Structures are given as C-alpha cells and as structure tokens.
C-alpha cells in the first residue's frame, strides 16, 4: 500500500545460508526507513494448506500428531505443504485424503494465514471441507497420524485449557466459528 511506504524496508543483498529439503534460510541486508542498514534472517517456506473438515454429524475431524521440534503430540487440523506447481485446492484435497482417508464434496476457500510473520514467509491457505466421505488414509512414509472427532465447543475448551496450542489450529477454530455462524 502506498500509505505504508514510509515503513518499508528495502532489500540490498540476499544470501542463502541454509538449503534444506523443506526449509531454506536467507540472511538479507535491508535499508531501513531512516536510511540505516539492518540484517533480516528468515525461513523461506513453499506454502501450505489447512483443511477445516466438518463431518456429517457436525463434529470436526482433527488429527493428533507428534511434532518433533516440541517433542510432544499436538491436536491440529489436517494440513500440509504445497508441492511444486500445485494449487492450494489440489493440495488440500490431496492432504485430506492422505492424512485422514476422507474426501469432501464441498470445498470453500476461507483465506490465508501468515503464521509467523517475524521470521518466515509461510502462507497457509484455509479451506472449509464439508460433505465428507470416509475412505482409507494414505499416509506418507514416516508419517503417523491419529484422527479424532471433536465438537466446536470441545475445540474451544481445548484452546482455553491449553490442550490446543498450535497457532494455525487456533486460527482455524476462529474461522470455523465464524463460518458456521453464517458470517
């Protein structure tokens, strides 16, 4: 936005300092609004999709999955990274089937979440999936997921009592509350 130009930082130099299978890390030199220079380090991410799957009985299909960086199991919505040249809807459909075995008749794009704006460029596209039909999960090698069903009230209570702490999942619960309330 043109009214924000006085806050913009302008890249001078960019160096790739780590190249991983999924994540890459860049270190950039930027010119600040006062003309001084600063260093910005950030994770470059391919993007992802998160699915908010509503079962025919109104409960929400969730996953329990071990997340290595924090060494514990988390309750979260089905989600996954975009493959190269893959659109968000195709990714959502693929991830829902792979991780849960479900397909959906109806897909509603809700928007995008930027989960960690201070150190990554990751974008997570959010879809509401309804008209679910059960099938067999097709987990990737080395992927272990347990599916559970929870009501929206149970999800909200789990955020408030600390059982759900994943930021994208908390954002997804908000989106789901608003969408199911007709907003």
UniProtKB/TrEMBL annotation:
Cofactor: Mg(2+)
Classification via Pfam families: NUDIX (PF00293)
Ranges for domain Nudix hydrolase: 44-177
Gene3D superfamilies: Nucleoside Triphosphate Pyrophosphohydrolase
Catalytic reactions on record: GDP-alpha-D-mannose + H2O = alpha-D-mannose 1-phosphate + GMP + 2 H(+)
InterPro entries: NUDIX_hydrolase-like_dom_sf, NUDIX_hydrolase_dom
MF annotations from Gene Ontology: hydrolase activity
Annotated Gene Ontology cellular component terms: cytosol
Keyword Aminoacyl-tRNA synthetase set for record: no
Record keywords, A-Z: Hydrolase
One GO-annotated biological process of the protein: nucleoside phosphate metabolic process
Family named by the database record: Belongs to the Nudix hydrolase family. NudK subfamily.
Name assigned to this protein: GDP-mannose pyrophosphatase
Originating organism: Chitinilyticum piscinae
